[in-house]
Amino acid sequence: MAKSIKLRAKAKGDVATVKALISHPMETGLRKDKKTGKPIPAEFIQEVVCESAGKTVLSAQWGSAISKNPFISFKFSGAKSGDSIKVSWVDNKGNSDSLEGKIK
Amino acid sequence: MNKIANVLTVACLVVTPFTTQATPDQDLKEFRDYYFKKFPDVPKDDFINGVYSIDPASREQWEAFEEFPSYEIFVEKGEDLFNKKFANGKGFADCFPNYKKGIRQNYPYFDTKTDKVVTLESAINKCLSDNGEKPYKWKTGNIAYVSAYLAYQSRGNKINIKVPNDPQALAAYNRGKKHFYAKRGQLNMACADCHYHYAGSKIRADILSPALGHPTGFPVYRNKWAGASAKGDGMGTLHRRYGGCNKQVRAKPYKPQSDEYKALEYFHTYMSNGLEVNGPSQRK
Amino acid sequence: MNHNRRVLLKGSLAAGAVGAAVGAGLLTPKAVMAAWAKDAFEAKEVNAAMTGAMGSADATASDKIKLKAPDIAENGAVVPITVTSNIDGTTNMSILVANNNTPLTSTYELGPTTEAYISTRVKMGKTSDVIAVVKAGGKLYSAKKEVKVTIGGCGG
After folding, report:
1. B245 is catalytic
2. Alpha-carbon distance B121 to B159, whole Å?
3. Which residue, among B173, B167, B193, has the nearest Cα to B182 in the 3D structure?
4. H or E segment to which residue C60 belongs
5. Distance in Å, alpha carbon of B66 to nearest chain A alpha carbon
6. Which of B12, B191, B194, B245 is flagged as catalytic?
7. Chain A environment of B72 (Cβ under 8 Å)
8. Residue spans per domain, chain A
9. CA dihedral in degrees (C89, C119, C55, A41; nearest 10)?
10. Any CB–CB contact under 8 A between A95 and chain B?
11. B89 lies in which domain range?
């Protein structure tokens, strides 16, 4: 199964810029299925953690108002090309995924 | 409503190019010149970006999206599908041997053997059925993903549609041209009303995109389609959009890959000859 | 710096989701945060949402916070927002949409060398102020911008 996370991490000087695009419905739980009229259950990422070279760089808590196929970008210093970078998420249903890569 | 009344009045007074049986090349020159004159500040190559080439405010949002566009998810899905072998051992690469160099810019073309317009989507499904596989549904899903992957491989190539000197080919081209300029639906509007005469003007809170450069970015990821339902992933083909546009003027839509829409796509894409492929693209 | 410093909220802890992730080795014990701030995310008023996420609703307006958001959103379901805080010692950032049913969209805890910069895309139900709240040196600062959400003619 293809991973849900697409990750781009690039170092310029000692600052790394990280961009992640996650394939996820981010369903609020407030919508109804147009055909059946039944409510579509909530399914959204609640926590996103980013680690690099063994340290937590960012911990985020999300609500269902983050857009579908969520995007996040942030920057941190003290980074260099080749450092590891890992992004993980957990949603309200207990589903999760993570992706590890290297800063370019 | 006043604006629509104006559109109808003005459109009636304009002599459509259709009445003067021009050649496709003459049409192309007139078409391009019209938009270049109407939007003199837009770099000629930039029309491929649709409304974003003429509206700075929405362009800024679009550029934010282009930092990491959602359609990349679907290009990857298309790549996986493209590389998966069929039961008979062959694959899409056998039908599209030049896919790495890019092929999107050559579609649609007129097949003089079958006397039919061949679109990229119809070629994708023909590849499947020729190899004993089940063809995809036309408007969304796998067909859009594979088309997106092929478009992505073709980025930068200039659109190069040909209308051979063949009466059937010309007939298909002219059928498409007629559709573009003909009024239809309860609202009695033509594609040309919004996208030619009133390109750049507002329709409620939307800005009408110029038809020049329209098809270069397809298949398209539309924020609107992505939000529509839980299953809607946002990707759709050109014929899906044609159907939507027809419905929006309260006209009965044609079926995707119908002869009518294929003819329209033929004319519509010819009018973008020389512009670069930039599919898949993100739109409102 | 204590990464786990966060306001624990009243109400049930969503221990299940975090527990499963820890079990699967996806969130190392070092990275486990307090449970998802349910009360903050379900708060219907900006003040309650701010208190839940940042500990207080008392924030000073600051022009050192740059909030980039469109004047008119092309589509209310995906509005690109970028928050940059030039206030020294920024440790936490939150993004709220005042007129959403539940204003809190997200809250971020920055690592010690992480820049006070977040870019994401949020859903807006209707025209509203987008509010960025940051915590620096234990105090709260905010900036806001109105983003219009319209109904289009053909697009959406």
Report:
1. yes
2. 16
3. B193
4. strand C59-61
5. 11
6. B245
7. 6, 21
8. 5-102
9. -160
10. no
11. 74-153
State both tokens at C27: 């969130």
How far, in Å, CA of B215 to CA of B271, rounded? 9
CB–CB contact B202 C80 (8 Å): no
Q: Hey, are the CB atoms on C77 and B245 less than 8 Å from each other?
A: no
Rounded to whole angstroms, the Cα distance separating B255 from B196 reads: 24
Q: Check if the beta carbon of residue C95 is closer than 8 Å to that of residue C83.
A: yes
- Residues in chain B within 8 Å Cβ distance of A19: 67-68
Rounded-to-integer distance, Cα A9 and Cα B238, Å = 34
In a domain, B159, yes or no: no
Number of structural domains chain B divides into:
2
Closest CB to A19: pick one of B67, B80, B229.
B67
Decide if domain C58-149 falls under CATH 2.60.40.2470.
Answer: yes
CB < 8 Å from A in window 60-79 of C: 77-79
Q: How many CB atoms lie within 10 A of CB B13?
A: 6
Q: What is the pLDDT of residues C49-108, one digit of tens each?
A: 999 999 999 999 999 999 999 999 989 999 999 999 999 999 999 999 999 999 999 999
The DSSP result for B19-86, as a single string, is GG---HHHHHHHHHHHHHHH-TTS-GGGGGGGGGGT-HHHHHHHHHHHTS-THHHHHHHHHHHHHSPP
Quote the CATH superfamily of domain A5-102. Answer: Immunoglobulins (2.60.40.10)
pLDDT at residue B162 greater than cutoff 80: yes
- Determine contact: B231 vs chain A, CB below 8 A: no
Residue closest to C121 by CA, chosen among A7, B232, A16, A65: A65
What span, in angstroms and rounded, lies between the C-alpha atoms of A46 and A38? 24
CA gap B93, C101 in Å, rounded: 50
pTM, two decimal places = 0.86
C partners (3+ CB pairs within 8 A) are A, B
Q: Is B33 inside any structural domain?
A: yes
Pairwise CB contact (< 8 Å): C70 & B206: no
Predicted-complex ipTM score: 0.95
